[in-house]
Design a protein that fits this description.
Blueprint: H1 3-11, E1 26-28, E2 31-32, H2 46-56, E3 69-73, E4 77-85, E5 88-91, E6 97-99, E7 105-109, E8 116-119, E9 127-135, E10 149-153, E11 164-165, E12 176-181, E13 195-196, E14 200-201, E15 204-205, E16 209-214, E17 224-227, E18 232-241, E19 250-256, H3 261-271, E20 292-293
Parallel strand pairs: 11-18
Antiparallel strand pairs: 1-18, 2-4, 3-4, 3-8, 4-5, 5-10, 6-7, 8-9, 9-10, 12-13, 12-14, 12-17, 15-16, 15-20, 16-19, 17-18, 18-19
Amino acid sequence: MNIEEVRLKLCLGLLAPVALLGIASLTGCGVGFASRHPKTAVVPSSDELAAEQRLLSQPFALAMAEDAIVRVVGPSMTCTGTVIEDDLILTAHHCLVERGPHGEFSKRLLEPSQIKIELGGDYFAWGEVSTRAIVAPPCGEGGGAGDLAVIVLSRKLVGLSTMTPRLDSPPKMGEQVNPVGFGRCALSPDGIRRKERSGGSIHALTGETMHLEASVCPGDSGGPVFAKGTREIVGVVSLSAMDHDENTRGPSVMARIDAYRLVFAHARLIADGLAPNELPPLACAGNDSRVERR
């Protein structure tokens, strides 16, 4: 198997293809674990870890508004997330589940200790924070409807900007949206860093998803989908027909977040100290799956 075949399999969600809307190549947009820098990752020393702890305990003097978009790193794949409160990260459900022996998605969530959040949008992360809990509906682990989750952090991110999920106003047909993520396609000329992708107008809607043409790379999963001209999040990157070129706009499915307001409410309660088993179980929204087209 040559390197391009390996990259293609990673792009296809570790051999877990998903067919949707008649597009056989529509696949999850996470990527197999990779360091941002193409060279071998260096294990931080105890002094470096202590420095990171100090950094997280004070305002980020160098943080920009866009640093609210972060990289979500798991044991076998990396994705994108967004700081929506100082201790909550919005991302995709399928980024946070265990994988089977052939790369298939399971319904079992990863242990929070297996997830870390990297801060900073350039080639090197300038901070890192661990995860305390994961809140997700009991569906969406394979992409599409229900493919969102909220990570509860182990500490508050002091001084870092947040971005607003638009929960009270649904996406509209014809609305212009665009995703942002840490993905990297095989032909991308540089390393892993945050990039704003080419989006477009929503041409189809269901009760839980929106459909458009967008440029997406492996690693963009879970990234915010913004209403054009704003930093209001209307969805997260879920599925896309990808090739090796980051400039290619392909059929893409984004998970709507307005259908799962209870996920956000549960995450807030857990962050404030309530035990997850004290909350009622989450359910799938079960909204109308019929596709409305423009």
